[in-house]
Specification:
The protein has strands at about 25, 30-35, 40-45, 55-60, 65-70, 75-80, 85-90, 90-95, 135-140, 150-155, 160-165, 170-175, 180. It is mostly beta strands. It has a five-stranded antiparallel β-sheet, with no helix packed on it. The chain starts with about 20 loop residues before the first strand and ends in a 10-residue tail after the last strand. About 0% of the residues are buried.
Length: about 190
C-alpha cells in the first residue's frame, strides 16, 4: 500500500519503514530511500543527486572516523583509517604517504616552468625500477620537434648506461666501467 502526502508532514518522533519499504520523493518517484535487508540505499533516477552544505562529512556509524570532508572554499580531504591522505588546496593537491600509479603519471604545466621537487631531511632518492631484467630504465628530454631529443638510458640486459643528445647515442658507460665515446663498444679501457 502507499500513502501520499502533499505539502508539509510534521512527525512527532519517527517514521518506521520495514525492509524494502521505500520513502519516495518527486512527482515521478524520482528518488527513494530504503533498506533492502542487507544495505541502506539512496536511489536517484532523475537529474543529479546533490548534497549541499558549507561543510559535508562522510563518517563511520560511530562518528569517530572520517572518510571524506568537504569544506566550502577550503577544499576536500580524503582519509584512510581516520588519517588524512589527500587534500585539495588553492594551489593543487597534497598527498600524504606513498602515491602509487599503475599507469602513466602525467603532469602538464603548459604556460610556466614545470618542475619536480623532492624534499627530505636526510637522503632523497628517485628509483626507476624495471620489472624485467631485459628491459631498461630511461629518462627522456623532449621538445615539440622531438620528444626523445635527449635521453639517459640504463640497459638491464647489458648493464650499461647510455647518454643521448640530438636524438643519438653520444657516449656509454659499459658494464666494466669503460667510457665509450662515439661508439657502442669499447676498444680501449678508460675506466
Amino acid at each position: 500500500t502507499a500513502t501520499e502526502f502533499h505539502g508539509t508532514l510534521a512527525v512527532g518522533t519517527s517514521v518506521t519503514y520495514g525492509d524494502n519499504e521505500k520513502a519516495y520523493f518527486g512527482n515521478g518517484l524520482d528518488m527513494s530511500i530504503f533498506h533492502n535487508g542487507n544495505h541502506s540505499k539512496i536511489v536517484n533516477v532523475t537529474g543529479e543527486l546533490r548534497l549541499d552544505g558549507d561543510i559535508i562529512k562522510l563518517k563511520n556509524k560511530d562518528e569517530d572516523e572520517n572518510y571524506i570532508t568537504c569544506t566550502d572554499t577550503a577544499g576536500v580531504e580524503l582519509y584512510y583509517a581516520n588519517s588524512k591522505k589527500f587534500e585539495t588546496t588553492n594551489t593543487g593537491a597534497v598527498v600524504t604517504g606513498i602515491l602509487t600509479a599503475t599507469g602513466n603519471l602525467h603532469a602538464d604545466n603548459y604556460y610556466a616552468n614545470s618542475s619536480l621537487t623532492l624534499n627530505n631531511n636526510a637522503n632523497v632518492s628517485v628509483n626507476l625500477t624495471s620489472t624485467s631484467t631485459s628491459g631498461s630504465s630511461r629518462i627522456f628530454f623532449g621538445d615539440p620537434d622531438n620528444s626523445l631529443v635527449g635521453r639517459l638510458l640504463y640497459s638491464h640486459n647489458g648493464d650499461y648506461m647510455s647518454f643521448f643528445t640530438a636524438g643519438s647515442e653520444r657516449f656509454r658507460i659499459d658494464s666494466n666501467g669503460r667510457v665509450v665515446i662515439g661508439h657502442t663498444q669499447a676498444s680501449t679501457n678508460y675506466g
